[in-house]
Amino acid sequence: MNKPKLLLVADTYHPLVDGTVRFLDEFISRAKENFELSLLIPDFQRKYKVTEGKAYPLKISRVLKPLPTYPSIKLSRHNLKIIKKAVKNAEIVFVQGPALASLLAIHYAKKYHKPVLAYLHVLSWELFENSSSWPLTKLWARILKAWFIHSYNKCDELLVPYHELLEQIKLAGISTKLSVARLGVNIELFSPSPQKTRSKENLGLSKEKKVIGYVGRISREKNTHILVEAFKKLKHQKHLMLLVVGDGAENLKEEITKLPNALVTGFVSNVQDYLQAMDVFVMPSLTETTSLATLEAMSCGLPVVATKVGFMQNYITKEHNGLFFPRNSSTLLTVKLEKLLQDPKLREQLGLSARKTVAYSFSWERAVNKIKRKLFEYYYNR
């Protein structure tokens, strides 16, 4: 029996490893036996070879860069030809957003009468508004929002990572069929360090220093400058280190690297090794949906300090498995960090509870199996 031909569409891919890419990796590893996979993805620097399925690489614009570290694909005849070919050759299309490749894939999927589902990893208009310093940003964000809502309403079904987001996007104007499919965490890979000092030494970090860490884009919407300001205010700086795992805007990276006790790694494929070397994890973001990075930190048994945005305000419980701070207050973030740094028992208690939260409630098997059932449903009913 032939496998359904499934086209996966994403606006980011290796070597730029983020939550969307890790979602794709987990999905592909669990779906490759059920589907004949193809990937429609940006050709970032031609440094990564796709090993699972056929790849349709899209050329990147060197001019249009609406988000730090995430150039847009070119709006060119070459790319349009590739997108059309990829969609025509597919029997079902699964889109991962949040930019031009995804929007065009949705358009052509409907034009060629292909079932199309999308997973909402981020609210693109919020991401743009909080990340951009362009003139008339709010106006462009409203235009972008209208464009995305129009496109998402063309989908046969839109999958979202948590229930509370359903009502939010309905109010925004999305009227297509909606379902919840939680993200998951690989709890075997993202596990507590058996020996914290060894984890630090393996990465060339001082075992004597307490490591405060962050994983994600270095950008305005991730609010990383608040983390930097809070870190500067901490006492006993010679015993501390700020570890930022990710890449982003050069001016924001420079702000971090100017600190004598800070490290920016760039994108890495072994995020778990860096999480296991941290003592405290901070997610200072202005906008999130699930924040897979925070869940992975919790799975590694880390106490987390986060802003109360997106799904984080549901799965983090104050004083049980993490702490919250107001998103624009570096002073209160400093207070929370000092509290954790001075109380190893509290760090351990929060970390243990964080690990249990993820292990009990966030399973990749459940998430991917639900998505596969949806895809098969549309394939057989097309």
Protein model, in words:
This protein has helices at 19-31, 77-89, 100-111, 124-131, 137-152, 164-172, 196-202, 224-232, 250-257, 271-277, 292-299, 312-315, 330-341, 344-361, 364-380; strands at residues 5-9, 36-42, 54-58, 92-95, 116-119, 157-160, 178-180, 210-215, 240-245, 262-264, 280-283, 304-306, 322-324. The chain is an alpha/beta fold. It contains 15 helices and 13 strands. The chain folds into two domains: 5-184 and 363-380, Rossmann fold, CATH 3.40.50; 196-361, Glycogen Phosphorylase B (Rossmann fold), CATH 3.40.50. The radius of gyration is 21 Å and the shape is globular. The longest helix is centred in the last third of the chain and has 18 residues, at 344-361. The mean pLDDT is 91. It has a seven-stranded parallel beta sheet with strand order 3-2-1-4-5-6-7, with helices on both faces.
What's the structural blueprint in terms of helices and strands?
Layout lengths: L4 E5 L9 H13 L4 E7 L11 E5 L18 H13 L2 E4 L4 H12 L4 E4 L4 H8 L5 H16 L4 E4 L3 H9 L5 E3 L15 H7 L7 E6 L8 H9 L7 E6 L4 H8 L4 E3 L6 H7 L2 E4 L8 H8 L4 E3 L5 H4 L6 E3 L5 H12 L2 H18 L2 H17 L2
Helix pairs in contact: 1-15, 2-3, 4-5, 7-10, 8-13, 11-14
